[in-house]
Design goal:
The complex is a heterotrimer of chains A (437), B (476) and C (127).
Chain A lengths: L8 H10 L5 H4 L20 H13 L6 E2 L12 H7 L2 H5 L10 H18 L3 E2 L6 H12 L6 E5 L4 H13 L4 E4 L1 E2 L2 E2 L1 H7 L4 E8 L9 H10 L3 E6 L10 H4 L3 E5 L15 E5 L12 E5 L5 E5 L6 H4 L12 H39 L3 E2 L8 E5 L4 H10 L2 E2 L2 E2 L4 E5 L6 H15 L1
Parallel strand pairs in A: 1-15, 3-4, 3-7, 7-8, 8-9
Antiparallel strand pairs in A: 2-10, 5-6, 9-10, 11-12, 13-14, 14-17, 16-17
Chain B lengths: L42 H13 L21 H7 L2 H4 L11 H18 L3 E3 L5 H18 L7 E5 L5 H8 L3 E5 L9 H7 L4 E6 L12 H10 L3 E5 L19 E3 L20 E3 L11 E5 L2 E5 L15 H37 L15 E4 L1 H7 L3 H10 L6 E2 L8 E4 L7 H20 L1 H6 L11 H6 L9
Parallel strand pairs in B: 2-3, 2-4, 4-5, 5-6
Antiparallel strand pairs in B: 1-7, 6-7, 8-9, 10-12, 11-12
Helix pairs in contact in B: 2-9, 4-9, 5-6, 9-12
Chain C lengths: L7 E2 L4 E7 L2 E6 L1 H7 L2 E5 L6 E2 L4 E7 L3 E5 L2 E8 L2 H4 L2 H5 L7 E9 L5 H12 L1
Antiparallel strand pairs in C: 1-2, 2-3, 3-9, 4-6, 5-8, 6-7, 8-9
The chains are: A alpha/beta (437), B alpha/beta (476), C alpha+beta (127).
């Protein structure tokens, strides 16, 4: 049994006696007998070696694919070695939220740098220190936009289904009505949006590129949304932001997104991070931690958690969100990733994604998997082949390849990133060709 | 020190990605105009930058860290090793189920063990943090009342000593928050609770031990008062470290519980996250749990949504790698190690309290659980030294201050939680420091007002930060 | 600490300056700003909002606290002092110059105190 206790049994007894107790039983006498537990029905404790062996055994029960062509909200990008080295540093790993600024400058500065990079990427005025993930960021953004007289949230059907589900769950909680805006040919139906919005509309949420990989007319959607006096929330893929029109340029009021592509492993869905950035007018409605620059009493540059009166620990039931934690270590990873990549590296990654995905679409098409949409796309796209989904994915799996995400029996959502080589994509195409012919 | 943007120069960078091996494609859509101004630094400069930043952070291994209500216990290294296994980190969340059986077993086994520890029947790992768990737990309560068309239940009862997240979580669900006062002993005032409950009570949120570090001995009466009024009971697991393996929320009459794996179950705090806030419930609430749960099927496990699930509170299955760490920890402690940890946490807290209470007045008398609250009101009044001054003084001794000014019902509060992973030697040293600070305060309070002087920065100007918010770097 | 004679005061530490029978400026007293400490942000209502005597119309934030500001009168917000949004420190530096809202169509008001009575009130409260 391990319990990481430095005090020996003898020391514990001495300590008990030093403060006037004879036994632990006496120390715990305030707990009524009726609620006491006899013994936990758990296995006996293990040595470190045994515990690790057990976890290794479980890890080995998973199949790790060398080649991944699946995205749908979690993306397989190259993670620079320096990211792991930085986020493995004991101080960053083990510290708590940086309440004591004097001994937390390292964390505070790293968040300030992260906020700056998110502002640069999105071209928004201010960023928070991150939230749990992209889906909760979207749900929090909806909550930011709700006003007394504007309470209905509109969401594009082309957004990620998990994000839609989380928005709906948060809105069920807060009694906010959610209206879905239908899609037309793989993108948001702009006429449907125009018709739906009215003076009670709080906001419209859309995703760029959308769930099907298609690139939406974000500035057009923003214009319609603002025309009705509602707020425009743009969910963004952070790699795509390096090259696509930004939320700032589109006039978004809030920009959010899943930060996992910025240096975080797939990790069966988490931990990831949600980034959130707002226009000047919306800054004070941002939930969660925000770091600001100030000076200490000697005039040195210093960083602190700021605008704290927005938050739950001060505003209590009047706070618009209850969030306390951010995903600081994940935000640190994202910051190191963006710093290591730089503008050139981020742009290169984005361009590689685009080119590889287009190549993949082309070779798959030649192999008999025709694209569902004829539209500009970023690094994901949908193919159609009647009844072939399961067979294709099975055949790829046998070659150690995780194929695209099955949308249904006919359609597959593919993804390519900088990690996928021409050689592997040609292999995928040949496997597909065999199944389709 | 310099910001990362102030280092390096244009032209510097890291060589990370290969050239394109397929035809380059230009997109026929509007592209961004201005390029993002990201850092341009070589890898060695980048690496040094963060090493320098790390030196300006007090981590759990840098010294005593008695941050009350945060359970800053030692983070075992084996947890990190388990969470770094590529068989976990390299798994896509949407892989076919037969290729992720190991992950599903982790989720299932961890939730079973945590159900045993809390006395609950089912558990979701989806919530990412404690506050997120509170939100999720209250969703279950709302869904339960809604399913019975009992829509008049609009109030959540919270003791006035509660952490700010409790009322904020209730407000996210549209509930009105009814705050009930604590009695002079720091526990729930039973009379006031009886007055507060009724047909409009949706539920009660409580921690036990409570936020002043005391075990509420009336707990069975409290939960049954709420149940008799038709409300449900919610256990905030922030303080479970004091009683794990000794008492279970389920046996105290609670219907829903959230845990903080990053407090009680030794996963690191990461400077503010990622945490994990699993939510457990009694069987009658399981049909409302969010997300997918692993269930046995065909000799393996598959994922299934509960019948009347409230939806999802996060994409996918939660902060999975945090669950891996917590599970490793629980495996090592086992049935004896878990209560042993709780006992030692309570012993350490009482030891410190007893050795300090002659000079630092405690907010409440008697035996505490895993943490205790001192009130410096008298010191503030008599010599002008505040809880803040004492906290900042501790920084100069390399000690992380206790939680300051919480709970709100205690004036000039310092809340100390030593945790079980500190040795008697450390406690004795820290006790000596506290006593030395007390003496200094009496002799020359200016030293405390000026503290800290040995840290990387002195006290920062928070008013300036908030009035003229500078939230990002810019070139000029 | 000063409390001008030409104003009237509420027990929740706001001052009221009647411009005519049904129009008034409202702010917080010198005593209030001193007790609240350095203010860093002000939340004000919108023009056209109704305010009710005894109920909060906005709040002020210090670094570590947020405090409701109560309306001593019932009426309609005709104007807000937008300067405060950028310069909340004016509330600390010049509490009687830094009015927060101008209310018109006043139909009701709580019992208000003159300067001497207000000073006597908070001094008794302090004991």
């Amino acid at each position: 049994m391990g319990s990481f206790l430095p005090n020996t049994a003898q020391e514990q007894q001495e300590m008990l006696e030093a403060i006037g107790f004879h036994s632990f039983e006496e120390l715990f006498s305030q707990i009524p007998q009726q609620v006491r537990l006899g013994e936990l029905n758990l296995p006996a404790g293990l040595s470190e070696m045994q515990a690790l062996e057990r976890m290794e055994e479980l890890a080995q029960k998973n199949r790790q694919f060398r080649h991944i062509f699946r995205g749908a909200g979690a993306y397989d990008h190259y993670i620079p070695s320096v990211v792991g080295s930085v986020i493995g540093k004991e101080q960053f790993v083990t510290a708590y939220t940086p309440y004591q600024a004097e001994i937390s400058q390292g964390i505070l500065q790293s968040i300030f740098e992260y906020q700056t990079m998110i502002c640069e990427l999105t071209q928004m005025a201010a960023s928070n220190a991150s939230v749990y993930d992209g889906a909760t960021a979207a749900a929090e953004a909806v909550a930011m936009c709700r006003e007394r007289k504007r309470r209905t949230a509109y969401v594009s059907e082309t957004a990620h289904p998990e994000v839609i589900k989380v928005i709906k769950t948060y809105c069920y909680a807060s009694n906010t009505e959610v209206v879905m805006i239908r899609q037309k040919d793989g993108v948001t139906d702009m006429d449907a949006l125009r018709e739906a919005l009215d003076e009670e509309s709080a906001c419209f949420y859309m995703q760029q590129p959308n769930f099907y990989g298609n690139i939406e007319d974000a500035s057009g959607l923003a214009e319609i949304t603002h025309g009705a006096g509602a707020k425009f929330i743009m969910g963004c893929n952070p790699i795509a932001l390096a090259i696509l029109q930004t939320p700032g340029e589109c006039g978004a009021d809030v920009a959010v997104g899943e930060g996992q592509p910025l240096g975080l492993p797939l990790a069966f869905g988490g931990p990831y991070l949600g980034f959130m950035a707002a226009s000047e007018k919306m800054v004070r409605r941002l939930p969660g931690r925000i770091v600001g620059e100030t000076k200490d009493q000697e005039g040195n540059r210093a960083f602190v958690l700021t605008l704290q009166a927005r938050e739950q620990h001060i505003r209590r039931e009047k706070a618009s969100s209850n969030i306390c934690s951010n995903q600081a270590l994940c935000a640190l990873a994202a910051g190191v990733y963006m710093a290591a990549m730089g503008e050139a590296g981020m742009t290169q990654a984005a361009r590689l994604c685009v080119s590889k995905a287009h190549y993949l679409q082309q070779v798959l098409s030649e192999a008999g998997l025709s694209p569902k949409y004829d539209r500009p796309f970023f690094h994901e796209f949908v193919t159609v082949a009647r009844g072939k989904t399961a067979d294709i994915l099975q055949a790829l799996e046998e070659k150690g390849i995780l194929g695209g995400y099955p949308l249904n029996g006919d359609e597959i959502l593919w993804c390519a990133t900088e990690k996928n080589t021409k050689e592997t994509m040609d292999l995928v195409a040949s496997v597909v060709k065999e199944v389709c012919s | 020190m310099k910001l990362i943007f102030e280092r390096g120069k244009k032209g510097q960078g890291c060589t990370l990605l290969p050239p394109c091996d397929v035809p380059e494609v230009e997109l026929p859509v509007p592209m961004r105009g201005k390029k993002p101004k990201l850092p341009h630094v070589s890898e060695n400069e980048l690496s040094r930058h963060y090493t320098e930043l790390a030196k300006q952070v007090h981590g759990v291994n840098d010294g005593f860290y008695p941050l009350g209500s945060c359970t800053m216990k030692y983070n075992p290294k084996v947890n990190e090793r388990a969470a770094a296994l590529s068989g976990f980190t390299g798994i896509h969340p949407l892989q076919p189920e037969h290729t992720v059986q190991g992950c599903l077993e982790v989720l299932r086994e961890a939730s079973q063990m945590l159900c045993e520890i809390t006395g609950m029947d089912r558990m979701t790992m989806q919530p990412a943090a404690g506050a997120h768990g509170e939100f999720t737990g209250l969703l279950l309560i709302k869904a339960y009342h809604d399913s019975r068309n009992d829509t008049a239940r609009t109030k959540i009862i919270v003791p006035d000593s509660a952490h700010g997240t409790n009322p904020a979580s209730a407000a996210m669900l549209g509930y009105d928050v009814v705050s009930i006062p604590s009695g002079p002993d720091g526990c729930v005032d039973i009379g006031k609770l009886k007055e507060a409950v009724g047909s409009d009570t949706a539920g009660l949120m409580l921690t036990n031990p409570n936020t002043v570090g005391l075990f509420d001995k009336n707990i069975l009466e409290i939960t049954s008062i709420v149940h008799e009024a038709g409300g449900l009971t919610y256990y905030d697991g922030a303080n479970l470290n004091a009683v794990m393996g000794l008492v279970r929320p389920g046996d105290m009459g609670f219907d829903v519980v959230h845990l903080n794996l990053h407090k009680t179950f030794s996963t690191p705090h990461g400077g503010g996250g990622p945490g994990s806030g699993p939510v457990g419930c009694k069987a009658f609430l399981a049909e409302f749990l969010p997300g997918l749960l692993p269930v046995p099927a065909d000799g393996g496990l598959c994922m299934e949504a509960p019948e009347h699930s409230v939806g999802s509170v996060k994409a996918f299955y939660g902060n999975f790698l945090v669950v891996v760490r917590a599970m490793t920890y629980i495996l090592m402690l086992g049935r004896e190690g878990i209560p042993a940890a709780a006992k030692n946490a309570v012993l350490n807290a009482n030891y410190m309290m007893q050795k300090l209470k002659d000079i630092y007045p405690m907010a409440y008398d008697g035996t505490c659980m895993h943490e205790f609250v001192m009130s410096l009101e008298k010191m503030k009044h008599e010599i002008g030294v505040s809880a803040m001054d004492v906290a900042k003084s501790l920084l100069d001794y390399g000690i992380h201050p206790p939680t300051m000014y919480f709970p709100l019902i205690v004036h000039e509060a310092l809340m100390v939680e030593p945790t079980e992973t500190e040795s008697r030697e450390t406690l004795d040293e820290v006790i000596a420091v506290f006593r030395e600070i007390y003496e200094t305060a009496g002799k020359d309070p200016r030293i405390l007002h000026e503290a800290p002087v040995k840290t990387y920065i002195r006290r920062p100007d928070e008013v300036r930060a908030a009035r003229k918010a500078v939230l990002r770097w810019s070139e000029d | 600490m000063k409390h001008p004679e030409n104003l009237v005061y509420s027990r929740s530490h706001e001052w009221v300056k009647f411009i005519d029978e049904t129009t008034a400026l409202i702010g917080i007293t010198d005593y209030a700003q001193d007790a609240l400490g350095d203010l860093v942000f002000v939340n004000l209502p919108e023009v056209g909002d109704e305010v009710t005597s005894g109920e909060p119309f906005g709040d002020v934030e210090s670094v570590k606290a947020v405090s409701d500001i109560f309306s001593p009168v019932t009426g309609t917000v005709a104007q807000i002092n937008e300067d405060l949004l950028d310069a909340p420190e004016n509330l600390n530096e010049d509490p009687y110059g830094a009015w927060m809202i101008r209310v018109e169509h006043i139909t009701d008001k709580e019992e208000l105190l003159d300067a001497a009575a207000y000073i006597a009130f908070y001094e008794s409260e302090e004991e």
